[in-house]
Write a structure and sequence with these properties.
The protein contains nine helices and 16 strands. The protein is α+β, with helices and mostly antiparallel strands and about 375 residues long. The longest helix has 22 residues.
Amino acid sequence: MFDSPHRRFNPLTQEWVLVSPHRARRPWQGQVEKTSIENLPHYDPTCYLCPGNERAGGLRNPVYTDTFAFDNDFAALLPTAAASVENEEVPILTREAVDPPGEPTRLDSVRASLLTAVAEHGQCKVVCFSPRHDLTLPELDLPAIENVITTWARESAKLAALKFIQYVQVFENKGAAMGCSNPHPHSQLWAQSRLPNEIIKESASQAAYLMDNGRPLLIDYLEEEHKRPERILAANHHFTALVPFWAVWPFEVLVSANRPCAYLTDLSPDEVRSLADIFKQITTRYDNLFETSFPYSMGFHQAPCDGQPHPEWVLHAHFYPPLLRSATVRKFMVGYEMLAMPQRDITPEAAAERLRSVSSVHYRLR
């Protein structure tokens, strides 16, 4: 069945992906990407994220020696909006503007509700992984990666404690192919006053599954995957990394906790160490696949920070890398993917086998 076109269901988002394995044999004459710069300096005096340098917003970085977290100088969300805008849905055209008082309701007043703007506020932070301008996650040692994860947890907790925040998104865009504007290895946290789209979908799916089955969705999914390890890339006592059955991106990876836990702050020191080990393994295999600094977008999905218990939630991270055939050929989400549904050529099983087959020692260290 998996050798011919078929659809696969994603129970986390309730969406489908089209898999077309035969298309992996088609010739490629499309766009070829530039490879990333491999020989970055330890310190770049022109980099606005390096220690001691002036940032683009005019502030100066301290001479930091491990991780460094600061408020984003060009944040997409602003906390000041919380004080200046009511936390209500506000139509662009109000009913009163369409129908003067005392006038009967017209069809136009119904149409007005289709144009709705909602105030959104929050806070955005940046976390530099280390003072080194040239070391990405797979090139850091395990204690340094543990420190990054601990910083993500600490900064998430600070943001979640703000009374108007409902969700905190931790993410990293690595590489110019994923829109990263500065090569100094760093990540971001965006905290906002409402749940974003993907979390709304995952919350509903996980809550419904728990109600129907009495167990968390991702715990049951991991149990199924461990019965047939063809998609598993790495596992330890606390975490599992795999190419999900429903993967959309060519070498997409899901990293999930092996127990129900809602937040990064729920992790014990042993679990942080295990997660760091999994992250190092996965990102090293990514780089080794095409012997390049492998671009991706990675993000943790934590439970909403709404003050409610979330027994349905299992902490997990998604890796979405674009590279398809080589360091210079990427997967584009265009045409059918934008207008109909996601589609992939290489099967998740083939992608997992290719990632497992590469060395666990980073190619720059061999």
